[in-house]
Amino acid sequence: MMWSSFFFGLLIACTGNPASASCPLQMSPSRVVVRFGDSLSAKCTSLSNQTEGMGWESPYGGVDLTQNVTSLDFKIDSVPEWELGPMCYVNSRDGGQCTEVLPVTVYKMPDSVSLRQNSSTGKEGEQFAIQCDLVNVAPARNLSVLWHKGNKILNPETFNDSRPSPVSKSSVLTLTAHRDDDGAEIWCEAKLNLWPGEQGPTMMRSKSHRVTVLYPPTLTKPENETLEMTVGENITLNCNAKGNPPPSYRWEFPKFSKEFHNKEEVIEPILTRTFELPGVYTCTAYSDQGTVTKYFNISEAPRSRTTFGVMVGVGVAVGVLLLIAGVYFVTPNGTFSFNKGGYQPGTPSGPV
């Protein structure tokens, strides 16, 4: 690059015609992005009809002054440097000269992209950090690191580093542990922002890291419950809780207590059985992260109220039947007769 700059300054000093916006040159492509070690090619075309000759100045792949041409190719079989400044120049018949430098960016994808974390487990509410290491990537000024958490893309990080040769970089993601993130996968990606849209090489990503968040038990149905029991019928008590690690359960009944562990903990949070004793039944879900308690107030359904209601209903039905019988079958003198319609006052009801 220094050699090209020196030659460029020498041309200005000798000709007095530096490159400018009015320089009648056209580069194809207008800029080059090339991987280190790959081949490079470009074409310089003069738009002037007064062209006497053209040439390319470069420490690699330079082309001597060529007479009577209006376009000239530039080629390098294998790019050997991180900075290149190939310059096309055109000599005109009036003795003037026009020059233009071809912008070239030499890149290299990282040798590796990996995650590093001091601890694989964090408690809810605590902060933890994950580091993404990128080894030998260039140019750093065009590098960005994208963090992924599940289906979300977090804010990318860029680097203010003007060195064109490969460097190693690290990006640190700091998060506050939350139970919703337990089991989520986190990974990072390295991207070189050198091409529009989806052009260019595929981004490199690290292996994913699964987040483990420890948090205390939380009841899925947190409200305390009041229930009535009827003899012979089952009642369901739901004390299911979610936590990490999964909680164990302890039930306290009015006359005994029982603990459930290990394999039974998934089933025993929900009890369905006939409860014979009224009172307060207590369930405690616990782990080394904390405890939570739920109360079930079970009372006996008032059977006396039910029996009384049945008796009243039967009494009312009997009374209605008697009333109907009285209207149709009781005679005026107070006797009961199935032939009430044929009765005459003072008339014997049978032979004398």
TrEMBL record:
Signal peptide per UniProt: 1-21
UniProt GO MF annotations: integrin binding
Pfam families per UniProt: ICAM_N (PF03921), Ig_3 (PF13927)
Tagged with keyword Ribonucleoprotein: no
Domain Ig-like: 110-208, 217-293
Family indicated by similarity: Belongs to the immunoglobulin superfamily. ICAM family.
Name by which UniProt lists this protein: Ig-like domain-containing protein
